[in-house]
From TrEMBL:
The lineage of its organism: Eukaryota, Viridiplantae, Streptophyta, Embryophyta, Tracheophyta. One of its GO terms (biological process) is nucleobase-containing compound metabolic process. Residues 360-538 form the 3'-5' exonuclease domain. It comes from the Eukaryota. SMART domains: 35EXOc. GO terms for molecular function: 3'-5' exonuclease activity; nucleic acid binding. This is 3'-5' exonuclease domain-containing protein. It comes from Cannabis sativa.
Length: 580
């Protein structure tokens, strides 16, 4: 049977392309149906053909073939699935560029297979054959990457006694020493270390339970920035070396790595100050991003951390968050002691009073929306922004956009999109279409492409967010590398924006006065940045950092063409005429 298959494979190259494809599929189907008479060479050749002729991307092809090989191993290979895979690994180096990828593929497929269907006889034979393969690889008889070597030793659970038995087949059965195997393996690991293949070296040291000189080896890996390998090694060696690792992280000011190591290995008692410092650093980063709810949850009701979070809220001028936390956790005494410090903080940020905004108008019904639309259509330039409640559940869909702010230089309209969509969706669609598609109103945004996608996703039944004209994304004009809109405001207007309320609950009604001010400021500041730079760019000096402001080329429009109705063929027209 094997000879017949090989003859069929040889004949594939003697026919035209169509016949070649048909015969290849026939052979593949037969080979994958029954492995009883299929050699590793033929199997790997067919695997290669499947890979070459696949139309998916490499990752998808790898996963599909991995699943296929996993199923194939159940189709009765003559020597057992595990032994069959080792035999394939012996042959694979002859496949050149495909060798490494296919090696990982069939090993991973075997791992899946062994979880559900394994026989002790097959595994025992495969383990000894894998030990011999390891010796042949190290001896350069078979060429495999060290990553594949590690996978082979792990998958087949090759241990020092197995290697010793292969190295010394005539050794007495009651001789349980394996000094030769240990020296052989240690030398291989030393070679990996010399080649700076630290993760593979550590994996094998752990696999064979060989304990190297701990601190010196750890120090070498840290100096080479091999932090994952160092962590794996320290975890294997135990608490003393883990403590050395934490100290090394602290010396390098890698507090997050130190914190994660302390947390994962229960070393809080050994490093209480470092743990607390890292927690504070984590809370500060969350506060800077406006993720106050997440930061509060991360305190785990620790009073010291809660007090630090209150301090951060005070520092940011987020007074309602200060009140909320102090009331919830009875921190009134702490609050009264710290209030004087907070009074100095507001001068760092822009506020609405500086822009002489006449009114912030809440829009949640048809009449207010019509009035807002009429005012906006009479403006030459408006700033647009929107907000939605953050969703901290990993992998879940973002919440619906809650509000949309549209600002002229004197008025800000805050549209309650959720209520308008529930009560007057058609009017909302019509009014916002007039605004978004108006060729007479320049609409300013900051990273507004992201916002418009979120709007279109939130209100996919409406047409108003699918088309727009005269949109200028300020981010594209200035390309500020850091700080976002707040950083740009600092550069142009001399002060930044307080972004602490960015991730607050925008679905609550009514919004707090501070939320309204935050929302209004994000939109109105766009108008003033644009006006300030446009008016001063011609005379600004280089020292002021205001170069000539070229903005017209950045205006974009997006007008989807309406889909044309599908043309009917003659048969359909005839049928319609008869039924009509």
């Amino acid at each position: 049977m094997e000879m017949e298959l090989q003859e069929m494979l040889a004949e594939l190259h003697m026919h035209n392309d169509k016949e070649k494809t048909l015969q290849t599929l026939t052979v593949c189907k037969h080979a994958f149906f029954d492995l009883t008479y299929i050699s590793p060479v033929v199997f790997l050749y067919l695997l290669k053909e499947c890979y070459i002729h696949g139309t998916c991307k490499a990752t998808k092809k790898f996963r599909a073939l991995q699943q296929q090989v996993h199923l194939v191993l159940q189709n009765s290979p003559p020597c057992g699935p595990a032994v069959f895979v080792v035999q394939c690994l012996y042959v694979l180096p002859t496949f050149g560029l495909y060798s490494e990828g296919f090696s990982h593929l069939i090993i991973s497929a075997l791992r899946r297979f062994l979880k559900v269907a394994a026989t002790s006889e097959d595994l025992a034979e495969a383990k000894m054959l894998a030990a011999q393969l390891f010796l042949d690889i190290v001896g350069s008889s078979v060429n495999h990457d060290e990553g594949v070597v590690v996978k082979i030793l792990e998958t087949f659970d090759v241990q020092l006694p197995n290697i010793e038995k292969v190295m010394c087949p005539l050794k007495e059965k009651d001789d349980y020493s394996f000094d030769s195997a240990k020296r052989f393996v240690e030398q291989y690991i030393y070679d990996l270390i010399d080649c700076q293949s630290y993760m593979n070296a550590v994996t094998l040291l752990e696999h064979f339970s060989i304990r190297q000189s701990g601190e010196s080896f750890l120090d070498t890996m840290m100096r080479k920035n091999e932090f994952k390998a160092a962590e794996k090694w320290a975890t294997f060696m135990g608490k003393p070396l883990l403590c050395v690792l934490v100290k090394a992280y602290i010396d390098r000011n890698m507090l997050n790595n130190a914190y994660q190591t302390i947390k994962q290995n229960n070393l809080r008692q050994e490093f209480p100050d470092v743990y607390h410092k890292c927690k504070e650093s984590s809370l500060k980063k969350l506060a800077e991003k406006g993720c106050w709810d997440v930061a509060e949850a991360r305190t785990n009701n620790n009073r010291q951390l809660l007090e630090y979070l209150v301090y951060l809220a005070m520092e940011a001028g987020y007074i309602e968050k200060v009140d909320e936390l102090c009331e919830r956790y009875s921190l009134e005494g702490f609050l009264s002691a710290k209030v004087p410090e907070a009074s100095l903080l507001h001068s760092r940020y822009l506020n609405l009073n500086e822009f002489f905004v006449e009114d912030i108008i809440w829009v949640d019904d048809a009449e207010a929306l019509h009035n807002a639309t009429s005012h906006i259509e009479g403006c030459k330039v408006v700033g647009i922004d929107c907000e939605w409640k953050p969703n901290y559940v990993k992998g879940s869909k973002p919440n619906k956009v809650s509000i949309m702010q549209i600002a002229s230089d004197k008025k800000v309209f805050i549209l309650d999109l959720i209520k308008l969509f529930e009560d007057v969706p058609d009017i909302m669609d019509d009014c916002l279409t007039r605004i978004m598609q108006s060729p007479r109103v320049l609409k300013l945004g900051y990273n507004f492409q992201c916002d418009i996608k979120q709007l279109a996703h939130s209100y996919e039944d409406l047409q108003c967010f699918k088309q727009y004209e005269m949109l200028l994304d300020i981010q594209n004009v200035f390309k500020e590398p850091r700080g976002g809109l707040s950083g740009l405001a600092m550069k142009i207007l001399g002060a930044g924006l307080n972004k602490t309320r960015r991730n607050s609950n925008w679905e609550q009604r009514p919004l707090t006065p501070n939320q309204l001010e935050y929302a209004a400021l994000d939109a109105v500041v766009l108008v003033h940045i644009f006006g300030h730079v446009r008016n001063h760019s011609q005379t600004a000096s280089d020292a002021e950092g205001l170069e000539k402001f070229e903005w017209k080329s950045y205006i974009v429009s997006h007008m989807d063409k309406l889909k044309k109705p599908k043309k009917q063929n003659k048969r359909e027209l005839e049928a319609n005429r008869k039924t009509g």
